[in-house]
Amino acid sequence: MLEVLNRIKHIRTRSGRTWKDICFRVPIIAKPKCLGSLGTARRRRKRSEDRVLEDPDEWLAEEDWGEDLTQTDSCQGFNLSTLSLSSLHKLAEVGAAVSSGHFSVELATSLSREFYPEPYCSMVKQAETVCFQESILELWGIEGEIGDKSEQIIRNLTLDDVLETINMKNTSGVFMVGKNFKKMLSNIRYDSTGRIVGAGISTISWLSQVNMTNVRLRGSAQRGELVDEFSHEFEGEMIEALTDRSQYSNVSVFVHVHRMFLESLEGQAFKDAKMLILGYFIVLLYVLVMLGTFSCVEQKIWLSIGGVLGVGFGIVASYGICSAVGFFYSAAHTVLPFLLLGIGIDDMFVIVQTLSTLSSSEQNLELEDRISVALSHAGVAITITSLTDFIAFSIGATTSLPALRSFCVYAGVGIFVIFLLQVSWFTALLFLDEKRVNKGRNGLICCYEHKNFTRRDKTQEPLMEKLFGLFTQLLLTKVMKVLVLLCTLSFLTLGIVGLSRLRMEFKPEWLMNPESEISGWWEATRTYFPSNGETEFIFLQGINYPENWERIDTLVSKFKNQTDVINSIDSWQDVFKDYVESLEAEAMDWRNLTDDYFQSKLSQFLFSPVGAKYRLNFLFDGDLECGQPAPRVLLSAIQYSHVLLQESSEWVPAMDWARDIAEESDITGEFNLGQISPAFAIAPRYANWETDKIIGEELYQNLLSSILAIFITLLILLGSIKGACIVIFCVAGTLVNVAGFMHFWGLTIGI
Asked: What b/e readout covers 169-186, taking b as 16+ CB neighbours within 10 angstroms?
């Protein structure tokens, strides 16, 4: 683990950046050096306990403080003359404790209460910051870092030393705060007394920051994510350093750097380009076999290539048109070329097959007339299929899911363009190919003419038609009728049962390449660190906190009490109340909280050791400064986590509950937010859960709408109620069976 930390520490990018340049820095609760100096000076001359000085200035003047403390770097801004005599005594006692090595978080909190704003704020301004990274190695950190001294200690540790420290110590030597280091371990082994005797897995985490100024000036370095070029560059070096396993012996390493996730999704979105080319080649061979015959003249090589190219033209046109009007391309679109290829090839087969099966009288017509008659028959079929497909995708485009809407628009436009190309481009190619065949020209080398070529008699029944004729006669027997009905009802029943159990569930990790680095990390995390629930936030936007204090308190209480949905809640409000009550001699009346008092104490709280971690939970209308009242709060966040939820039937109701409770809290805002509630619950994972919810709501609605629209279209084009009902029954039965058997195959409905 130490070697891994050193690898990251020694990275230097081409632009000269190191980890310290791009890391997210946090202040640490370190020993105030000035107080150490104060304690050392205080001990130089002990005062008589029974001597009382009425004037603090006299006491200050007579005291031998040694050096001029306010002139040292660690004591800049100290103004000791503003303190009372009792405060000076207390400060000197604290200094003595610091200089003797007895500094603690509790002592730092006491300083924030008793010596705010000064000299506490001067200490805060001089406080050190460190890069945020977490690991069990923090247990051996010294004065805010894992430096040379720590490395020497770590390299000389024995197994007993490690176990003793993990069992007995819970304070980070880097951040100087208590931590539960067991959360960073997995496969933990305990003895009979509950003492840790071993662990198989440990984690190391780093947190960087985004330079938003750089992003605004130069744009984001990665598509789909706001990240500056320097952080993006460093993450690339991190990936290279961490995935180099040549120096790891007998250790399995799973790596997740943030840019890996989007790169994995992008790789999945575009990796099918090779498969698309291979698929087109296979389809081309299939078309060659099915459209032509094994004859030098009647083989249709160029017609097949032209037809497949026509489908390709339709796909390119669809992408171009949709992109031009603002519809985006996502990973869900990777299947679109195969879908459009199948539809386009089907139209080709219908047109060619119709031309081949014209009646004897129609076969004797001129070529132009034969093509016209064939298209008059085939045109109805491909028009019906193309129109119904277009209607189905058009209805799908009404969804509120942006990715699914974009996919349906791309598909609908592609189907329409391919239909136009089939009745124009492909039909023209078919005319030229038939003209070539009539002249006996070679199917590959068109300039070569076969003198003794005799065209196949198309009045003879082809082999496939003979086979299907025999199959039709077999279906008309009573035994086969009963068997077909029994099979249909059996499959339909299974389909209905499966459909009733089909889950609407989508997880982003399903889009990742199973063989990718991040996929291995994801699987390891799920196996060794099963989540205790997703972390979410309640945001309070543009509100007056004193006026809404009781409503916020009620909202937090509801989340605490709903233990079947909420696992934990970390409310800054509760910690703030405890901190402020420790400042006051009398009980606080929170119902009469004033704006000035709240702003003043909020600033003091956020600069205290117990409140510092909540500073990132606030967005102010100005800069927050120690010793000054906090600016108006524009936004604040309260963090909570759900219980472990297994599937969409659990997390969708949990999400709805959290949102409803927040929005129904009667918290009022200071300005109009439109449809946005002043209090709302949101989280990154809610986007996925919202997808599951929308799919569940819109699936059956869109299916029924599509079936109804297609039925009306068929009724108009076919002119037969019976025919339209038969077709719709077959379509609906197919949908039910496909969706139902998805359940038995372990699949879910998603994007």
From this structure: eebbbbbbbebebeebbb
